[in-house]
Structures are given as C-alpha cells and as structure tokens.
Design brief:
- The protein has about 260 residues and is α/β, with parallel strands linked by helices.
- It is built from 10 helices and 10 strands.
- The protein has 2 domains: about 170 residues, P-loop containing nucleotide triphosphate hydrolases (Rossmann fold, 3-Layer(aba) Sandwich); about 80 residues, no CATH class.
- Strands 6-7-8-3-9-10 form a 6-stranded mixed sheet, sandwiched between helices.
- α3 crosses α4, α5 packs parallel to α6 and α9 packs across α10.
- The two termini are about 35 Å apart.
C-alpha cells in the first residue's frame, strides 16, 4: 500500500477573486492522526469541503488511495471510505443511542429505503452496533434517548456512527468544539483509541488536543500552507507564532 492515503496537489478554491484555499500541497500518511490548524478564516473548513466534494476546486488535484477523485460526486467519495463528521453533532435526537448506530450500519445492507421490511431483519446489526458503542465507551447508554445525552457523549456517538461506515480516512471537523474540559479530555482519548488501524485528518482549534495526539500538523494561513511537521517543530515556527498573534502564541507554547 502507498505510504500516503491522501494527497492534494496545488489545491485551490477561489470565490469571485477571493482565494480561500491557495495551492495547498498536503500529504496524509496512512495510519497517522494529522491535524489541520490555523487562525479563523485560514481556509480549513473550505479545504474539508473540497475533500468531500461539497465544493469543486478551481484548480488542483485530490488523490485518495492512489486514485484521482478530484471530480467525483460526494457519494462516490464517501463510498471509497473517506468519511466526514461535522462541527455540529449530527445524530437523530429522538432515537436511542443503539438505533443511531444501527441506522448507520444499515447503509451497508443496501436496505435503507426498504420500508416494507420488518424490523427483525435488522436484529443482526445489534451485535456490531454494541461493539461500536463499546469502542467509544457508550455501552452503558445503548437504550438512552439520544437527546438526553450530554454534549460530549453525543460527539462520542457521532464517532461511533462514523466508524459504522467503515472509513479508511476519517475527517473530523472541530471534534472538541464547545466542550468543557472534562469532555475535551474524554473525546481526545476516544479519538486516540479509535485511531488504531485507521487514519484521521482533523481540523482542531484546541492546541492541547493537537499537541497530545497529532502525529503531524499542517498550518494554514490565508488559505496557504505556512508550516508542516511534528508539533514541537511547528509550534516554534516564527510564521506560525505570527499567524496566531499573541494569545495563540501563548496557547501554542503553553500546550508543549
């Protein structure tokens, strides 16, 4: 297998003269947790939208598993195993935790729209659903209605539903956004746990999270890459410190 699971070459997105993503060359090594960081407006979410085909690039290439996927449709890319979670928790609030994971697993059966099939036809998914809940430490919440879960647990459930799609590369968009300290710590450890045997590319603003679990970091500023490497190296880069301006400089150094 190729060393890099994902590569972008000169990836660029312009909006009526404004360059949101500018000639981004990025390589994600298979098996790594790779963090994409940068100040607000740096182009991180736009870059994710290009990878998942929510936006079409102005120029450049996206290569996944050795295949040029630049002009594929979003569903085609997802079927290849490139699966994204979002900043806002995307689960069904009035279903149980177990049923949320089972619904994600049902996609693999090709029966998503077979409304006339009895519920008993899905019972075979229960064991796998419970395994996935155990993987994100939600085994004790299987029968809980999802709306009742604390926010951090909902994000853990989203991890489980993402894992249910059997991704080769998980794109995590701000996985700890809006969390208290305890939830941040729990979800950080869950990401580390589920990364075993998988590859993760994540946008993350919390430098303590990035410094503790990321194998490699790419820093964007104004849509362009200004640094790439391990945290210890990137956090001392003068361009990175300047990009984060003062408060984030302290944050970068404080996370070491």
């Amino acid at each position: 297998m190729a060393e890099y699971i994902l590569e972008t070459q000169g990836l660029t997105k312009e909006f009526k003269g404004f360059v949101a993503v500018n000639q981004v060359d990025l390589q994600v090594r298979r098996g790594d947790i790779h963090a994409l960081i940068g100040p607000n407006g740096a182009g991180k979410t736009t870059y994710f939208n290009l990878l998942t085909k929510f936006l079409a690039p102005t120029r450049g290439r996206i290569v996944f598993q050795g295949v040029d996927i630049t002009h594929e449709k979003p569903a085609q890319t997802a079927r290849r195993g490139l699966v994204r979670s979002f900043q806002i928790s995307a689960v069904f609030p009035h279903m149980t935790v177990l049923d949320n994971v089972r619904a994600a697993l049902q996609r693999g059966l090709g029966t998503s729209f077979h409304f006339w099939k009895p519920e008993s036809s899905l019972h075979g998914l229960h064991e796998r659903a419970r395994q996935l809940l155990a993987e994100v430490d939600l085994q004790d919440f299987a029968d809980e209605i999802t709306v009742n879960l604390p926010y951090g647990r909902k994000r853990a459930l989203e991890l489980a539903t993402t894992l249910a799609l059997e991704p080769d590369l998980m794109l995590l968009d701000e996985p700890t956004q809006g969390m208290g300290h305890e939830d941040v710590g729990r979800v950080t450890q869950l990401i580390k746990k589920v990364s075993a045997g998988r590859t993760i590319l994540m946008v993350e603003h919390n430098m303590n999270v990035v410094s503790s679990i990321a194998d490699r970091i790419t820093v964007l500023q104004r849509g362009a890459v200004i640094a790439d490497g391990p945290y210890a190296e990137v956090s001392r880069n003068p361009l990175v410190i300047e990009a984060y301006m003062g408060t984030a400089e302290t944050e970068l150094q404080g996370a070491q």
